[in-house]
Amino acid sequence: MTAITRAAGICVLGLGLGLASPTPAQEDDSSPLGDFFSDMLRDMAPQIEEWEDLMTDLGPALRDFLIEMGPALEGIFDRVQDWTDYEPPQMLPNGDIILRKKTDPAPEPEAPEGGVDI
Question: 12: number of CA atoms within 13 Å, CB side?
Answer without folding.
Answer: 11
